[in-house]
Design a protein that fits this description.
With 127 residues, the protein is of the alpha/beta class. The protein has four helices and nine strands.
């Protein structure tokens, strides 16, 4: 089942409930063509992977949350464990690495958000 998230409090509650399990959050909009194509795929994944938490944020209904999560394109899929972002997917087709205080932290990858096979492969990898 895909939980609908409308604000930061619901987002924090969702991540807390997921705990050590993988949480996948889709940032999308009703008017977005690629987002519309991913809706049934994302729902099917939520049924298939019942040990993973799935949620959706409509960026038009929750612009503050989208801004807080640094959403620039849609659809974007962000993955969390223990309330920390693990990996994010977006339509930008490039890979970047994050650095904190001069040390390399876990890499953050960006992929095509409408690519269901890549999304499912990353879910399987991170479960």
């Amino acid at each position: 089942m895909v939980q609908i998230i409308n604000d930061m409090n619901e987002f924090k509650t969702f991540l807390t409930a997921a705990g050590h399990k993988l949480a996948v959050v889709e940032f999308s909009s009703k008017w977005c063509g690629p987002c519309k194509r991913m809706v049934p795929v994302f729902h099917a994944m939520s049924v298939k992977y019942q040990n993973v938490f799935f949620a959706n944020v409509d960026v038009n209904n929750s612009p503050e949350l989208a801004e807080t999560c640094h959403i620039k394109t849609i659809p974007t899929f962000q993955m969390f464990k223990k309330s920390q972002k693990v990996t994010l997917f977006s339509r930008i087709k490039r890979m970047i690495c994050c650095y904190r205080s001069g040390f390399m932290s876990n890499p953050i990858f960006e992929f095509s958000g409408a690519d269901a096979k890549q999304l499912e492969a990353k879910i399987q990898e991170l479960m």
